[in-house]
Write a structure and sequence with these properties.
It is a single chain. The protein has 216 residues and is of the alpha+beta class. The chain folds into three domains: 6-63, NADH-quinone oxidoreductase subunit E (Arc Repressor Mutant, subunit A, Orthogonal Bundle), CATH 1.10.10.1590; 77-163, Glutaredoxin (3-Layer(aba) Sandwich); 183-211. It is built from eight helices and four strands; from the N terminus they run ααααβααβββαα. The protein has helices at 6-17, 26-37, 42-52, 56-63, 85-89, 92-103, 145-157, 183-215; strands spanning 77-82, 116-121, 133-135, 138-140. The chain has a four-stranded mixed beta sheet with strand order 2-1-3-4, with helices on one face. It starts with 5 loop residues before the first helix and ends with a helix. It binds FE2/S2 (inorganic) cluster (FES).
Length: 216
């Protein structure tokens, strides 16, 4: 695994059509591939490169820059515990240490059954619920050690069901429509904009030259 499934290939094609330049779809396609397999497999990166007319190394170069894109396998549930200031002041470090002990792994690792990967994160923008965490990018907080135990039990039993998507699925709703205007219309609008910019630059240059002349 895995190149895009037929269904995801159709979605990928649609995503590409949203952008005037296909390479702009690179990050969204990485998220799509990740939602399919949980991480960006070498095959997926090659597939994305083919679709966008890039080299697989360019896909890897971009993907490896972003913390939310995984170029190594991760567990079914990616748990990110925030230890930034508001969470830290509310006991995040203790929760993180408890999570490590309870899961039997240190930060950055995955449990042997491939169910859980533990991450320490920067501010998750949910400071009002400090200390908080995310499971597959869904928020939980404030979290105590007891809450953490309950969360793990529920994840193991599958009782959180649709509340937690497959790993890598960051958006709940896929944008369904392509661009409202054609590519040729975009090109002509861009050409017109370039013309206007060049005109303004020329006018500015002429003004600068005449002011310089008056100053002599
Ligand atoms: S500091 Fe933890 S969510 Fe902002």
């Amino acid at each position: 695994m895995a190149r895009f499934s037929d269904e995801n290939l159709a979605i990928a094609t649609q995503i590409i059509s949203l952008y005037p330049q296909s390479r702009s779809a690179l990050v969204p396609l990485c998220h799509l591939a990740q939602s399919q397999d949980g991480w960006l497999t070498p095959d997926a990166m090659e597939n994305i490169a083919e679709l966008l007319g890039l080299q697989a190394a360019e896909v890897l170069g971009t993907a490896s820059f972003y913390d939310m894109l995984h170029t190594e396998p991760v567990g079914k549930y990616l748990i990110g515990i925030c230890t930034n200031i508001a969470c830290m002041l509310n006991g995040a470090q203790e929760v993180l240490e408890y999570a490590e002990e309870s899961l039997g792994i240190s930060v950055g690792n995955t449990t042997e059954d491939n169910l859980f990967t533990l991450e320490e994160t920067e501010c998750l923008a949910d400071c009002g619920k400090a200390p908080c965490l995310q499971v597959n990018y869904r928020f939980f907080g404030p979290i105590s050690n007891e809450d953490f135990d309950e969360l793990i039990t529920n994840l193991k039993s599958g009782s959180l069901g649709s509340q937690i998507p497959d790993h890598g699925t960051i958006n709940r709703v896929l944008r369904k429509q392509g661009l409202a205007v054609s590519m040729s219309e975009i090109s002509s609008q861009r050409a017109e904009a370039d013309k206007q910019i060049a005109k303004r630059k020329a006018a500015q240059a002429a003004l600068d030259a005449s002011q310089k002349g008056e100053g002599k």
